[in-house]
Design a protein that fits this description.
heterodimer; A: 391 residues; alpha+beta; six-stranded antiparallel sheet; four-stranded antiparallel sheet; B: 291 residues; alpha/beta; seven-stranded mixed sheet
């Protein structure tokens, strides 16, 4: 789960990680008062205007700007609020900017990068910092990897002071700024643990001209599996940033991801669902979605699955691919027939059922009176559904 | 022979009185799995499954009373990590965790603990292990399996069943099939399983089923290239998966490096593994590999 920059900064604040102060607005009428408040409270003329969307690359896309006067801020805010921001992470459709963060400008002396995330290969969390801040870390990693300093954290010990010092030394910090950075790094790890984050990234973390360290940005990813014990984090979810069909699927306990093709598919199990998408492609089609209906595949599940898949108007045929294990295929077949009847479907449906009672299932499908194309094996199923989508 | 479990494994079911635990314990008993005990804290002293299986309050007690050495966990996600640690601390040597949705931070710690204790953890978020005609320690449909000489290792549940089914259709049975799970941090890795199959005299060939995300398939393939004498057939799911999206399994996400299906397929081939490009070809490619 992702959150907005301003929400991340509020979390930082509560964990003793210093940030630029500011306020978030949703309505354009609030702009003048908010500017005045930021300028007065934080004793600044320069003000940053930052679009709040769940995607990186906002600066390049025109979603982060510095203004030097009240008039300039108002013009920028008017432009930015409601605009569709396109960045390398939003895709070509972009995202509508619904909120702006208005915060005091900073006198930047140096920009750094700092992040904690899981290193899957080492099976430990890795803390990395770089003197190359404010740019894409992937670029730094591939072009000048020596400029990234990393420490791996023993999960049973937690981060140690010497590790935080190593990171701060890696940024060539001294005096007060060194001490501040060490404290920020220790606090970042406490925050990472306490919030069940899977990523905390500060880019840039800055050294100000008067020698202090501040987080100028915040990026969080949280472990969806841990939200049951992170009520406050779960409440920060902004569903307007997510695909509405994927949210609806989630409400049905279905795992759905929309793709660009026209061949829909409904499968039990994530691995088989991916393999089904792949074989549709190999057979000459383009998968319209990933959909894992889980272990049960009841009539209700199948019906909900159809609703989700067919809400995508590009879908021209649907493949149901179920490997019946504990769940018997004849039950699944009955569910499919019932769903097709009740929903009065207009697109061709190809069904492949393998496993327990698959022969009875074939019979149920062929005697059902609804137009279902039965398939025998994955290859046959893929070929049939691709042909049906073309036809 | 086989790997990890056999007819002599003395099995404990953690979470035996829950609905999942009840259902699958029954299925495992029917397969012939030697279940000797169950654990549900607070229900110690009862008997379950037609009075056949004693229930204990703790793993320690179950080990002391019945000598169980192998465990399968059907405990909800908030408590699953602790169930693994409890089993590991009580000296259980093979632990299968079926539970899906264990928090990542919990698993990072669990992995360290089982490594330190020398416990063999399989999963979480996996279908478990089956040694054909001897012991089912999992939730897979056992009727699809046939006794034979192929080892199966897979990150996915239903894709494992698909692979097993195709093996059988080309006339090849299995020694042991292991679903290792699709989470970012799992107990037993693909390479661990390859090492076990290489050392098992009964296994003559291995099928590995991987997917996008992480480096596990690549690490296993590179190890096999140097150390393995038995032929390996591979399949990688997710050639059409968009980058940055989690495809059902928590660990199935393309996030940079050689973690795409394309890169994994290329490296597996470079390491001498016979890769089935399509899921429908796993059986036929395996047959060719074994000839």
């Amino acid at each position: 789960m992702k959150i907005h920059e301003y929400q991340g900064k509020n979390i930082f604040k509560s964990y003793g990680i210093p940030i630029q102060n500011g306020y978030v607005i949703e309505n354009i009428e609030d702009v003048p008062a908010t500017i005045a408040k930021v300028q007065k409270e934080f004793n600044t003329e320069a003000v940053m205007v930052k679009a709040q969307i769940h995607a990186g690359g906002r600066g390049k896309g025109g979603g982060v700007k510095l203004a030097h006067s009240r008039e300039e801020v108002e013009i920028l805010a008017n432009e930015m609020l409601g605009m569709t921001l396109v960045t390398h992470q939003t895709g070509s459709v972009g995202k509508e900017v619904q909120r702006l963060l208005i915060e005091s400008g900073a006198d930047i002396s140096q920009e750094f990068y700092a992040a904690i995330t899981l290193d899957r290969s080492r099976e430990m969390d890795v803390f990395m910092v770089s003197i190359e801040g404010g740019v894409e870390i992937e670029k730094v990693a591939s072009e000048t990897p020596e400029k990234i300093v990393k420490v791996w954290i023993d999960p049973l010990l937690g981060i140690k002071n010497y590790q935080a010092r190593k990171l701060a030394f890696g940024l060539s910090l001294t005096d007060e700024a060194f001490k501040e950075a060490v404290s920020i790094f220790l606090n970042m790890y406490v925050c990472y643990q306490a919030t069940d984050a899977t990523l905390i990234e500060i880019n840039p973390l800055i050294l100000t001209q008067d020698g202090h360290i501040l987080a100028l940005d915040s990026k969080f990813n949280f472990d969806g599996n841990a939200l049951f014990r992170q009520k406050e984090i779960a409440e920060m979810r902004d569903i307007s940033e997510e695909d509405p069909t994927e949210i609806e699927a989630g409400n049905y306990q279905l795992n759905y991801i929309k793709l660009d093709g026209d061949v829909g598919c409904m499968v039990n199990g994530a691995g088989l669902a991916m393999a089904t998408m792949d074989i549709i492609k190999i057979a000459g089609g383009e998968p319209a979605n990933f959909l894992d209906v889980g272990g049960t595949a009841s009539a209700e599940t199948v019906k909900n699955g159809f609703r989700i898949i067919l809400s995508d108007k590009n879908v021209r045929a649907v493949l149901i691919n179920i490997f019946g294990g504990i769940v018997r295929c004849d039950r699944v077949a009955n569910g499919v027939v019932q769903a097709v009847k009740e929903l009065d479907l207009a697109v061709p449906i190809v069904v492949r059922l393998e496993g327990t009672n698959s022969e009875e299932a074939q019979q149920i499908l062929s005697e059902s009176g609804v137009s279902i194309i039965p398939a025998n094996g994955m290859q046959d199923a893929a070929e049939k559904v691709v042909k049906a989508a073309l036809g | 022979m086989s790997i990890l479990v056999n007819k002599d494994s003395k099995v404990l079911v953690q979470g035996i009185t829950g609905s999942e635990g009840q259902f699958h314990a029954k299925q495992m008993l029917a397969y012939g799995t030697n279940i000797l005990a169950g654990v549900t804290p607070g229900k110690g002293g009862q008997n379950t499954l037609n009075d056949r299986i004693p229930v204990f309050d703790s793993v320690e007690e179950a080990v002391g009373e019945t000598g169980v050495d192998t465990s399968i966990i059907f405990v909800p996600p908030p408590f699953a990590a602790e169930a693994v640690i409890e089993a590991s601390s009580a000296g259980i040597s093979v632990v299968v965790c079926i539970t899906e949705g264990v928090p990542l931070h919990d698993m990072i710690k669990v992995k360290q603990i089982v490594n330190q204790n020398g416990t063999r953890l399989v999963g979480p978020n996996c279908p478990g292990i089956i040694t054909v005609d001897e012991c089912k320690l999992g939730i897979m449909p056992s009727f699809i399996c046939k006794k034979g000489n192929i080892g199966v290792i897979s990150k996915s549940g239903t894709l494992t069943y698909e692979a097993i089914d195709q093996c059988v259709n080309v006339g090849l049975g299995q020694t042991t099939a292991i679903g290792i799970g699709g989470d970012p941090i799992i107990g037993t890795t693909m390479q661990d399983c390859l090492e076990l199959f290489e050392a098992d005299p009964e296994t003559e060939g291995v099928v590995i089923i991987g997917e996008i995300g992480g480096q596990m398939e690549i690490v296993a393939a590179r190890w096999a290239n140097e150390n393995m004498s038995k032929p390996i057939t591979g399949f990688i799911a997710g050639q059409t998966a968009p980058p940055g999206r989690r495809m059902g399994h928590a660990g199935a996400i393309v996030s940079g490096g050689d973690d795409t299906a394309e890169a994994k397929i290329r490296i597996l081939k470079e390491c001498g593994i016979n890769v089935a490009e399509s899921v429908a070809d796993i059986g036929t490619v395996l047959k060719t590999s074994m000839e």
